[in-house]
Amino acid sequence: MSLSDIIIQKIQQQGPISFRDFMEMALYYPGLGYYTSERDKIGKKGDYYTSSNLTPAFGEMLGRQLEEMWRIIGEKKFTVVEMGAGTGLLSLDVIEYLKKNPEIFRDVDYCIVEKSPALRNEQQERLDGKVRWCSSLNELSGMTGCVFSNELVDAFPVHQVVMEEELMEVFVDHEDSFVETLKLASDELNYYFADLGVVLPHGFRTEVNLDALNWIHELGTILEKGFVITIDYGYPSSELYQDYRNRGTLMCYHRHTAGEDPYEDVGEQDITSHVNFSALSHWGRKNGLELCGFTDQAHFLIGLGMDEYLKRAQEKDPVNYWKKMLPIKTLLMEMGETFKILIQKKGMECNNGLSCLKLHSRWKI
Fold this sequence. Notes:
It is a single chain. This protein is an alpha/beta fold. The protein has a single domain, classed as Rossmann fold. Helix content is 38%, strand content 25%. It has 14 helices and 16 strands. Strands 2, 3, 4, 5, 10, 14, 15 and 16 form an eight-stranded mixed β-sheet that branches. Strands 1, 6, 7, 8 and 9 form a five-stranded antiparallel β-sheet that branches. It has a three-stranded antiparallel β-sheet with strand order 12-11-13. The longest helix has 17 residues. The radius of gyration is 21 Å and the shape is globular. The relative contact order is 0.14.
């Protein structure tokens, strides 16, 4: 039975399901969901590229920031938690950088939290014994260190809503094909916008990522002292709810082609939506995570010394310099404004600031 047939059967038995539940099944249904299946997802043979697919420089810069955080915290045991490590390429690049400093490499406990069995297998083939895997954040309660994610939150299943006379939620039904129907939105969805101080105009359609709020609550619970780095594409509320985004931000990716129909190729295409960083910051504060800063990827990487990295690369290997420089240009220019970085902290002061935040971008939470 195909995944579409399984979803149709569920609708026939239970009635229309929320778009959030449809998206969760499309992405995470055991063995058949997009992220739980064995098919290639990332890279040339997959559906999209991530920063770590382009160049190891991204992982080195992130490693530099983790090293600085380790020094700021000043404690021996430093746990690094990577949420959703994909193919493990970013983990590999970060670890290779940390190996250059025997002191931190000795102290670091590198843990990956991965939901996909297929991706976990790929990570375990690529990474050495320094890495351990956890099935949930609960195993890390009381940790000191840093939790980071790269393109994780955009893949959480989202509720879709439309503002009519009242806020309505999108549900998925099936006739000859998947069709959408509207029902009155729950109190929880109405509260989301009220708490953010957002008033949607009539006809506005958008997404609500309640799973991200549950996730940020978990992070605030398990982290005793340290930082959270969230790297993803998205915006603060002030940009996300502009009139020209009144159809929402949901996108699908299949074989490096972007689409807008989540009901096609169910289980075969990625489905994502832009992250609301204002929501992560707002509910982070409610769960003990203070805002350190918010920036874009270009300013993040330059603040960490990407210009020095390029200079060294040119001196070391001038013949192949341009080959190394082109993917970094993509990180800084094509992806540099699109991707944002939110840094949060708990249980500590950071008076001297972080290198990744020393250059001010135009983005504000």
